[in-house]
Amino acid sequence: MGAGIDLDNVVCDFGSFRAVDHVNVSIQPGEFFSFLGPSGCGKTTILRMISGFNDPTSGSIRIGGKDTLGQRPNQRPTALIFQNLALFPLMTIWENIAFGLEVRGVGKAERRAKAEELLALVDLPGAADKMVSQLSGGQKQRVAIARALAVEPDVMLLDEPLSALDLKLRQHMRAELRAIQKRTGVTFIYITHDQGEALAMSDRVGVMSQGRLQQVADPRDIYNNPVNGFVASFVGENNIFTGTVGATASGMARFDTAHGQFRARLGETGGAAVKLYVRPEHTLFATEPGVENSLPVTVTEVAFEGSFISVHAHSDSGASLVAELRNDGGQMIPETGQKGFMTFAAERASILPDGIVRAK
Ligand SMILES: Nc1ncnc2c1ncn2[C@@H]1O[C@H](COP(=O)(O)OP(=O)(O)OP(=O)(O)O)[C@@H](O)[C@H]1O
């Protein structure tokens, strides 16, 4: 069974630069947890601190309830997987997988048996005697995972392990990784800048910006109820309006903009500057105006994307909007140049703080 990990007010400074800024999170035993954020937001630094390759400047990290202070990487129950797999090309697959066991003095028959067991777990039965060069990118990835699992870690730390694979394989490996994690019960901590990957695989996601954890929640909540403009924009697309909050009632508010008055859900704004965010898939094109949240527009482009159709439009007041319509035959698809209305339901639109969570 996997171990839980507690990050308690963790800070990491490189000289005067603060790479990780007061991060607090408890990851549950057996959880698949992803840190998601743009390049340079501090994800790798968090992973390196958990594995023991970097020390926190302040704060503490507990693995399985034990403080890791002073523990070297090889004293921690963690295994690390990188994008660069570093498999040994001159060893067979089973020798690669059993390498960590050999280092620990485990006998050959036992090593071979363990390697076979792990190959079955990662869905590569029969590959034991092949060479690394005979495997595809996705198969090599599975071997790397089997090799990391061979030493029976309580926590697997994965640093963008799928980013070198092509799109189709990456999508397939998402499901594979998730299945392997559930089969083993090992805690997985996954870092990625790919929101689709994080949402598809994780029990919970921690979204980061500039060293700070912005929101920790399950994937649906991250997407449907982002806490601020950074999370809303990093995890998905939006139509965005600037304006000011008017009258409020039961969690909803009027929002006054240069493009008219709208009504939307009011997030935790804390007095900060706000904007209105609505997803393209919650924006509709109609020939008649709706009762509220309806903007007269002219369609500028209709892009066929396969499962959906993107309708780009300009409002008479100068706003640019996008609606994504499902290609299910149930919706009227407008043509370029057509006049009409972009509308959205108030319950699907959110007024959120514009910026990011600042350090305390
Ligand atoms: N050893 C170091 N010395 C100085 N600055 C560092 C060091 N390691 C990381 N940084 C800086 O800390 C910040 C966070 O780096 P980190 O590698 O954690 O980001 P990341 O979110 O993993 O990004 P990426 O996805 O590009 O790997 C970056 O601005 C980086 O330049």
Annotation keywords:
360 residues, Rossmann fold, 2 domains, six-stranded mixed sheet, 21 strands, globular, ATP-binding, transport, nucleotide-binding
Description:
- With 360 residues, the chain is α+β, with helices and mostly antiparallel strands.
- It has 2 domains: 5-229, P-loop containing nucleotide triphosphate hydrolases (Rossmann fold, 3-Layer(aba) Sandwich), CATH 3.40.50.300; 237-353, Beta Barrel (OB fold (Dihydrolipoamide Acetyltransferase, E2P)), CATH 2.40.50.
- The protein is 24% helix and 36% strand.
- The chain contains 8 helices and 21 strands.
- The chain has helices spanning 43-51, 93-103, 108-121, 137-150, 167-184, 195-201, 219-224, 229-234, and strands at 5-14, 17-27, 32-36, 58-63, 66-67, 78-81, 155-159, 187-192, 204-209, 212-217, 239-242, 244-249, 252-257, 260-266, 274-278, 283-286, 294-304, 308-315, 320-326, 339-344, 349-353.
- The strands form 4 sheets. Strands 6-7-8-3-9-10 form a 6-stranded mixed sheet, with helices on both faces. It has a 6-stranded mixed sheet with strand order 11-15-21-14-13-12, with no helix packed on it. The protein has a 5-stranded antiparallel sheet with strand order 16-20-17-18-19, with no helix packed on it.
- A hairpin with a 4-residue loop joins strand 18 and strand 19 (320-326).
- Helix 2 packs across helix 3 (108-121), helix 2 (93-103) runs parallel beside helix 4 (137-150) and helix 3 crosses helix 4 (137-150).
- The radius of gyration is 24 Å and the shape is globular.
- The two termini are 35 Å apart.
- The relative contact order is 0.12.
- The mean pLDDT is 91.
- It binds adenosine-5'-triphosphate.
- Adenosine-5'-triphosphate binds at residues 14, 17, 19, 37, 39-45, 193.
- It comes from Stagnihabitans tardus.
- One of its GO terms (molecular function) is ATP binding.
- Keywords: ATP-binding, Nucleotide-binding, Transport.
- One of its GO terms (biological process) is quaternary ammonium group transport.
- InterPro entries: AAA+_ATPase (IPR003593), ABC_SmlMolc_Importer (IPR050093), ABC_transporter-like_ATP-bd (IPR003439), ABC_transporter-like_CS (IPR017871), Mo/tungstate-bd_C_term_dom (IPR008995), P-loop_NTPase (IPR027417), Transp-assoc_OB_typ2 (IPR013611).
